[in-house]
Design goal:
The protein has about 200 residues and is of the alpha/beta class. The chain is built from seven helices and seven strands, in the order H-E-E-H-E-E-H-E-H-H-E-H-H-E. The mean pLDDT is about 95.
Length: about 200
């Protein structure tokens, strides 16, 4: 995430009290928001991407919270550990069946927290994720939202190449959509996101 991760984390921590809780963080690889490990008792960090978990391990070491994290490389649907809360960290829209993922999450914890792109986010449109994001929020709404907030952030990339490297795995349409920033440096792309508690 090439945005102000500190501000995103602060918003998340204001939204939900992770203090002294055991949490399952889905899509935690990369570690951009790993600062919640400073307040949580234990974090079961789940990601199917081993390289992303490697980056998370380094981030937790730098934060001095590696002892609170258990890194689990597997599909979320195979997770059986129990917790106080399941956090979907900008990941629910990437899951093939978000409704099934939410149904599984409620078997693991009493609270479910989602932080993810909003369907009308310019960033979600730029990377061709609008339909996936809309489907995940539809599944969230179907489960019943206790509380939700909306936030604005900005994605920034030092160069077009950095943006391209971030987006290239999204497919040809995403690459076509970011072409308008070819030759631009540090061009801001608005990123609207929401947090929800189920």
């Amino acid at each position: 995430m090439a945005t102000d991760a500190a501000a995103v984390l602060a918003n998340l921590l204001r939204f939900y009290p992770f203090d002294d809780k055991t949490m399952i963080s889905v899509g935690a690889g990369g570690g951009q928001l790993a600062g919640y490990g400073r307040v949580a008792r234990k974090v079961i960090a789940v990601d199917s991407d081993g390289a992303a978990l490697g980056a998370l391990a380094e981030r937790t070491r730098l934060l001095g919270v590696e002892g609170r994290f258990v890194l689990v490389e597997k599909d979320f649907m195979a997770v059986t550990e129990s917790a106080d809360v399941v956090l979907f960290e900008f990941s629910l829209h990437e899951i093939t069946d978000p409704g099934a993922a939410l149904a599984h999450a409620v078997t693991l914890a009493p609270d479910i927290v989602i932080i993810d792109h909003a369907p009308d986010s310019p960033w979600a449109h730029a990377v061709d994720e609008t339909e996936k994001v809309a489907a995940s929020w539809q599944a969230i709404g179907a489960r019943g939202i206790r509380y939700m907030e909306r936030f604005e952030a900005v994605q920034r990339f030092a160069s077009y190449q950095e943006l391209f490297d971030k987006v290239k795995g999204q497919g040809a349409e995403a690459i076509r959509r970011i072409e308008r920033w070819h030759g631009c440096a540090d061009h801001p792309i608005p990123m609207t996101y929401r947090t929800a508690l189920l």
